[in-house]
Amino acid sequence: MAHRPFRWPQPLEGQEARIWYGGDYNPDQWPEDVWDDDIRLMTKAGVNLVSVGIFSWAKIEPREGVFDFDWLDRIIDKLGKAGIAVDLASATASPPMWLTQAHPEVLWQDYRGDVCQPGARQHWRPTSPVFREYALKLCRAMAEHYKDNPYVVAWHVSNEYGCHNRFDYSEDAERAFQDWCKERYGTIDAVNDAWGTAFWAQHMNDFSEIVPPRFIGDGNFMNPGKLLDWKRFSSDALKAFYIAERDLLEELTPGRPLTTNFMVSAGGTGMNYDDWGAEVDFVSNDHYFTPGEAHLDEMAYSAALTDGIARKNPWFLMENSTGAVNWRPINYRKEPGQLVRDALVHLSMGADAICYFQWRQSKAGAEKFHTAMVPHAGEDSQDFRDVCELGNDLQRLADEGLLGTKLAKSRVAVVFDYESEWATEHTATPTQQVRHWTEPLAWFRALADQGVTADVVPVRSDWDSYEAVVLPSLYILDEETTRRVRDYVARGGKLFVTYYTGISDEKDHIWLGGYPGSIRDVVGVRIEEFAPMGSDFEGTLDHLDLTNGTVAHDFADVITSVADSARVLETYKSEPWVGMNGVPAITVNEYGDGKAAYVGCRLGRDGIAKSLPELLDAMDIDVPSVAGNGDVLRVERTNETGDVTFAFLFNRTHRSVTVPVDGETIVASLAQANDDGTVTIDPNGVAIVKR
């Protein structure tokens, strides 16, 4: 997959390159007498970049064809003269009322045909030619007005595409879906084959008979091939809209880098962000913490996946939160220290920019309770003091040479696939308790428990260059990925494969002959059926014990044969009537010059972690003891020659942890460097060591 050349926002004239630091800035929410105070506080905090104009269409174009740039000119000029660069939005994220009143046909429709009315945001159709015309007129006006502005260092194209308008079922979308299918398949017969329309009399004679997967009645089941393609199409339709904006802006402002903010998280699977990553000049991401015990690990996992999408080029954390968000049923606060620590997690994983939503907390509107760099309490607040502390830390790290380093390549890669997630979301599967996205996160966390910080990489990346690779519930294996799996192991690779991997091809057609169809010989097992588990009916199987003391929940494979080249490590223990007693659960197979382990059940993070020592030994993978073991998440950034390394040490526990360090501790948040060559890290703390 070809990627656009990497281009990064350059510093303002006369400034040195720094770690970009700031956030979304919405001066149009405030009277102008607040602006000067904003800039004073930004300077105090070390802010050097803000994103402006994201939701300002109605302010910039108050009436059709009438543009008001005066207010925007004034604030950009103030910012630039204070040494604060501008990431300027195309402002197309939400259309103004005058547009939707004049052209209600731009509003998207849900699967029942109900129209999304104005009143929030992203109420537009990605496939509307009318909306595209108006949006590109705005892009043209913005580009022509700001093409020579020295303070604008990047374009922020729209905002969080698909956050609310991922799916549109309108007539515009129907026509676009038909065209997409024609381009993808060429003939209607090929579509019929891909969707398996021989089942339930769904055969189509012409592309005009293709309709979106609209409401088909409660309790019914949509054609899975069609639904998978609809998700592909919807991601592509939004991407095409982005590309239209991007290309116009680039034509008028050549040389200025362009991006749009993704929403990569463990469960953030609406768009195929790896596919989108090829279309931006630099990857940027919005990430919001998961409350509770998974907070740190999920953040590190998501940042690692963002780095994988960026192919280890620097990436931009466009949004995160200083504390609570506003959109969950319960909006938990961050604990002391987490504001600084969370930012440094993203930095450790390859981000060269740390930004927040937003600069000043709103006093009105739907996001008024979303925390910000300047909270409702104002300058005299712990959050703002932490914001200033973080600014100082980023300045120190830049001075020490962090820029120019990248996330060091791990020995182990955990593979993630957006399309496998989409396929497992269908409502007619062996169990609704299993989705692809949870298993990569569980493996990332379990490996961290063993002191291994894995890379998280998309399925179309170079995962086959790693010493060891995990394919966690990778439901779809097309022919090309199957070939790569075979070649990787045959050449000496160490592969971990789990349940629910290699079930279908890219059309969601089952690989026949027993699971996992296309790589049975690689893993050395054959599965005839699945054994889902649950408690929704009294007396059903709700778990399976393994001989190593772990417990499987939700899903297990019924492995009926094992190759002579394979060794069974663990089996199930159950009552005879269950039919699973003695059935293999974990195996290791020799294939070519490599080995493939198979974990045939859902063990969760704890069960995987407990099983890993034996598995790693059987796979001949040596994991050297690391400082802190699983108590500390260790992430390294290094330069190209490897002679400069920054080690980020994050405390994963709720107690203080003391670990030896090799080098100088240059940043310590809730941490203390000791005279004996160790560092003590408190809960929510981090130490950064340079060597």
From TrEMBL:
GO cellular component terms, A-Z: beta-galactosidase complex
Leader sequence residues: none
Catalytic residue positions: 160 (proton donor), 319 (nucleophile)
Any Pfam family matching the protein: Glyco_hydro_42C
GO molecular function: beta-galactosidase activity
Limits of the Beta-galactosidase trimerisation domain: 411-621
Keywords carried by this UniProt record: Glycosidase, Hydrolase
Family matches, as SUPFAM superfamilies: (Trans)glycosidases, Class I glutamine amidotransferase-like
Glycoside hydrolase family 42 N-terminal domain mapped to chain residues: 24-396
Domain Beta-galactosidase C-terminal intervals: 634-691
Entry EC no(s): 3.2.1.23
UniProt similarity note: Belongs to the glycosyl hydrolase 42 family.
Stored PANTHER family: BETA-GALACTOSIDASE GANA (PTHR36447:SF1)
UniProt name for this protein: Beta-galactosidase
Natural source organism: Bifidobacterium biavatii DSM 23969
Record lineage: Bacteria, Bacillati, Actinomycetota, Actinomycetes, Bifidobacteriales
